[in-house]
Amino acid sequence: MATLTLREKLAILSDAAKYDASCASSGSVKRDSLKSGGIGSTEGMGICHSYAPDGRCISLLKILLTNFCIYDCSYCINRSSSNVPRARFSIDDVVRLTMDFYRRNYIEGLFLSSGVIRSPDQTMGEMVEVARRLRLEEKFGGYIHLKTIPECSAELIERAGLYADRLSINIELPTDESVKKLAPEKKPETIRLSMAKLRAKIEEKAEPTLRTKTRERFAPGGQSTQMIVGADKTSDDGILKTSARLYGSYQLRRVYYSAFSPIPDSSSALPSQKPPLLREHRLYQADWLMRFYGFGQGEILQGTADGMLDLAIDPKLAWALRNRGQFPVDVNRASREMLLRVPGLGTKVVDRILQTRRHRRLRLEDVGRLSKSIAKLRPFITAEGWSPGAMTDMAALRQTIVRSCEQLALF
After folding, report:
1. Which domain holds residue 375?
2. Digits of tens for pLDDT over the chain (411 positions)?
3. pTM here?
4. Strand arrangement, sheet containing 109-113
5. How far apart are CA 213 and CA 215, in angstroms?
6. What is the distance between the alpha carbons of residues 290 and 302, in angstroms, rounded to a whole number?
7. Which of 217, 328, 344, 374 has the fewest CB neighbours in a 10 Å radius?
8. Boundary (domain end) residue, out of 273, 300, 327
9. Cβ of 115: how many Cβ atoms within 10 Å?
10. Same domain as 216, residue 264
11. Are residues 296 and 321 in the same domain?
12. Residues 327 and 217 placed together within one structural domain of the fold
């Protein structure tokens, strides 16, 4: 096989990494290397980190150490039986690329994942060595996220947590049955055990030591996971149920959903999904409702016939249309919890409403100035001088809102 240049390796392994869902540096510690004579820093506000389909610049160097892999997962483009160009970075390659890209102000950190070569321990050991050299030899203070391998040793996971801001272990698929069918070489129980051990280690390191009363640095950004959606026949309700269980069991910062798009030479047993990216987007919105809007997993899709999210409208609007008896809501009197359930009202807008109404009663136009979704709002709220009347129960309300939002999007 011909020797690849570093540029050719980068082209292959950055493209291969686009199937890994990365995560921002939110939740990590603030770190400024100017004080220690190093390079790079982590901002508490978080950084943009994803490849855009149109080629827009990203701020994380998001690559695979290698796309060679001993596993043959049906849904993965880099599986052992896939006919794709292969490449492998050395540890020196990744360290040099990260520092060179950072010095040119192209990136703010590194997202490193990998196919499994030879053994989980060898692969994870090389990834940990990349992070160690960046931190200790290059004095790199930027963000580092490592995708860890469940089958590797606990010692390697612990070492990874010393140098990385965030660690993630992929849950792979929504159900154990799907993992056993589509990724038979991986064991769901091993994945869950690794996630549980990582959670325990994060909690252990978060406790102040008896001698110094300080907290040891260990993956300050916590752990996250990635779930492939659309490779099996699990409904959206089933996916959200799995996510809720993961959040509760492992104290995850995020569950990342990765839309499965059929691969040309993939197994015909895999279902086709249309449109995969829109479904992924709706799942993220539903996940947001569970995490920040007080929605229980069971109520988001309660009352639907097939347990699937409506692709045409966002999940909160869909829920409100199925639960019209709880509306309209008085913006001048309702609780924060109920205001968060009004379509078009986000957390920041609700907080501003609560602050403003301490001093005066809000009219519809006041709410309109705070929110950009007045077309969604009108049927679901009352305000000083405004009542939706029979609009809330109108049979064609869904179509009316959709048309109004489409018209607003033109300007």
Report:
1. 315-408
2. 578 999 999 999 988 887 777 554 444 555 554 455 554 444 433 334 443 334 444 488 899 999 999 999 999 999 999 999 999 999 999 999 999 999 988 888 899 999 999 999 999 999 999 999 999 999 999 889 999 999 999 999 999 999 999 999 999 999 999 999 999 999 999 999 999 999 999 999 888 876 767 778 899 989 999 999 999 999 999 999 999 999 999 989 899 999 987 655 544 455 555 578 899 999 999 999 999 999 999 999 999 989 999 999 999 999 999 999 999 999 999 999 999 999 999 999 999 999 999 999 999 999 999 987 788 899 999 999 999 999 999 999 999 988 877 654 433
3. 0.86
4. 60-64, 109-113, 143-147, 166-168, 223-229, 254-259
5. 7
6. 14
7. 217
8. 300
9. 22
10. yes
11. no
12. no
Residue identified by tokens 């033109």 is: 410
Q: Which residue type, as a one-letter code, is found at position 233?
A: K
Do 320 and 383 have their domain in common? yes
